[in-house]
Amino acid sequence: MSIEAARxxxxxxTTLRRKPDRGAYDAATIHPILDEALLCHLGFAVDGQPYVxxxxxxxxxxxxxxxxxxxxxMLRAITDAPCCVTVTLLDGLVLARSAFHHSMNFRSVVVLGxxxxxxxxxxxxxxxxxxxxxxxxGRSAACRPAxxxxxxxxxxxxxxxxxxxxxxxxxxxxxxxxxxALPWWAGVIPLRLVPGxxxxxxxxxxxxxxxxxxxxxxxxxxxx
Amino acid sequence: MSIEAARxxxxxxTTLRRKPDRGAYDAATIHPILDEALLCHLGFAVDGQPYVxxxxxxxxxxxxxxxxxxxxxMLRAITDAPCCVTVTLLDGLVLARSAFHHSMNFRSVVVLGxxxxxxxxxxxxxxxxxxxxxxxxGRSAACRPAxxxxxxxxxxxxxxxxxxxxxxxxxxxxxxxxxxALPWWAGVIPLRLVPGxxxxxxxxxxxxxxxxxxxxxxxxxxxx
Lengths: 224, 224
Known about the structure:
The structure is a homodimer.
Chain A: H1 3-6, E1 23-24, H2 27-36, E2 40-46, E3 49-55, E4 57-60, E5 63-69, H3 73-78, E6 82-95, E7 103-114, E8 116-117, H4 121-135, H5 148-152, E9 154-160, E10 163-169, E11 187-195, E12 199-200
Antiparallel strand pairs in A: 1-10, 2-3, 2-6, 4-5, 5-9, 6-7, 6-11, 7-10, 8-9
């Protein structure tokens, strides 16, 4: 493992208290989970009221990028203010012999930090590309790039990946020892997010082939 | 539509400013989205720092239930304090002719409110059952119910569904009119969360059949 991959993003605030054995703080664990997640949930507070809004993120190295319209309330609320970005990948339903020990298999990441606006044109362009490429690899070369007006009316925020934690649960249910004698079926129902057949819109010229590889380029498919 | 289903959960704080045509505030829109989502993202603030943690929720009527260990930091932080519960169902990737108009089809719900601890034994038992049944319908009759110790060490919180909004995007990309002349493929890649073959754990007795209907009882499958 490289030094970068082993770098710890642990802090007191990101340290797991419940089931600490499920926690990880190294970039090698945290980055792939952020990359696989197609969306994140962004938390911020306004006048003491927490809000959680789904949005798209993209990671470039140890920076996470968020974007939206310049007038966007959410982006305004998190600019230069503490926020939290959380992603969760649901991998399976865990059915135990007791109601109590039912669980889910998942991989989640919580990032704490303060986001700031990207004003450098090259960094902003790279962030745009990362966001498009995250959804479909190769897509930025298969559509019209952002023009000046679009770039100007879109705000990009950078959140350093400096303070974060991952939490991962895998494997079968863990029942209380006496419960293993019970006759119930117990195990895992795996869950996967899968892409269906691409549906061209009504104004795509007839005969235009879908230009991407569904199995390897779309969303998180390439990570499986 | 019943009076209950048409009841508005709109408030100034839950009113969508961006793309207001995608917003809805009626229980008939909001409840099924909450029911289909297998997990939610719970937002709260501690010392001005927002946190967003994934957890399981279950709806009973116009109440949302959350649960966890009595010692759980997150539950302690939201008890009698403002919180936000957000669920997001990702339905598709929207590929436009311009990078700018790429989007996602999704259904999300944001609930604002203050959660309080459930102390009534019958309500707590009903919340437990709703949480188990939400994951696999019929499961609460196919496992050992919670015993007194488990009930005592688990905290259940009730969040009234009184202030909420839904945001829904469906359909093809919407490109700028001149861009429709471009040769790019544009359309939607549908996404679905699908269950795989159930994997019995090593200590399930050989020959024990999976006791649920994968197509209709598991997770959100019954909503599709």
